[in-house]
C-alpha cells in the first residue's frame, strides 16, 4: 500500500527513499542529540522504516474508521489523553477510543494533510512520533470539534515482541484552515521553559526517593509504560511507580547519579501540550524518558511516561 502522508526529515537527518515519501524542509529541531555509547547506531534506517510503516495503520485506521486496522498499531493497553472543555483531563482507554473511531465519518479526502513531522528514539524499543492528521468535525467527542480539524499528536510507541505499538497519545488541535500551531511571538521566550518547570520536581523527587514530591507534577491518571528486555509490556500506575521509587536509594548527593541528568528536548504541539525528553541517572542505570505533558487549569502535569535504560559507562 502506498503511503498517503508526507514525511519530514527525521530526527537524525535521515530521509528514506523519495519514492516512498515526499521530502519537506527540515528544521534544526529535527536533529537528535548525539547518543552515548550503548544506544543504537547501526540499523537506524530500518528502525525509522519500521515505525513509519506502523504509523501507516494509524493514519489508515482513523481516516477509514477501520478499528481492526487501527488495532494493528494501537496496543490494547494504549491510552489517549486530552483536555476536556472544562479544562480537566480526558483519559480514554483503547476500547473507548476505538468506539469513538467507529462512530466517526470517514475522511479519505483529508489524507493529503497528514504528515509525520519527527521520529525520535530513546532506544531500539522506545520511540516518540510527532504527527499531524486532519479529521472531520466530532461534536460528540469528549474533546469536541465543530469543524474540520488538524491534530498534532505526540505518540509514544514501544517495540513489543518485534512489533511497534502505540502505548500513549496526547494531542492538540487547530481548525484545518489554520494548518499549523504557532506560539504567539510575545510568549516565545516562555514556550519551552514553562513545561520544563513542570518536571523540575520530577528530578528532585526522583533523586530524593520522594513520591510525594514527584506527585506534584505526576498526574494521578499517569502511567509509566515500557518494553522490558524480553520486549514485554510493563505498565505501572502512579502508585506502582511511587512504590518502586520509594525503595530506591537516595541519590541526590551522588555525582555519579547526577552527572548525566539533563533535559534533551522540549517540543510543543499546542499551548497546553508538550513532550519532554530527558535523562536521569539511577546508578547503575541511566534512563532516557519521554514525558507527555498537558497543562490543566494552568498547571503542567506529566500525563504519561515511557522510558528505556542503559548501563553507566
Written account of the structure:
- The protein has two domains: 170 residues, Nuclear Transport Factor 2, Chain: A, CATH 3.10.450.50; 127 residues, Nuclear Transport Factor 2, Chain: A (Roll).
- Helices cover 22% and strands 36% of the residues.
- The chain is built from nine helices and 13 strands.
- The strands form three sheets. A seven-stranded mixed β-sheet has the order 1-4-5-6-7-2-3. It has a four-stranded antiparallel β-sheet with strand order 10-11-12-13.
- The longest helix is centred in the N-terminal third of the chain and has 21 residues.
- It starts with 5 loop residues before the first strand and ends with a strand.
- The N terminus is likely disordered.
- It holds the Pfam family Lumazine_bd_2.
Report the C-alpha radius of gyration, rounded.
19 Å
H/E series, N to C?
Answer: EHHEEHEEEEHHHHEEHHEEEE
Strand element count: 13
Query: How many helices does DSSP assign?
Result: 9
CATH architecture of the largest domain: Roll
Detail the poorly predicted runs.
Answer: 1-6, 8-42
Largest sheet: 7 strands, mixed
> How many separate domains?
2
Helix content: 10-25%
Strands side by side in the biggest sheet: 1-4-5-6-7-2-3
Distance between the termini: 43 Å
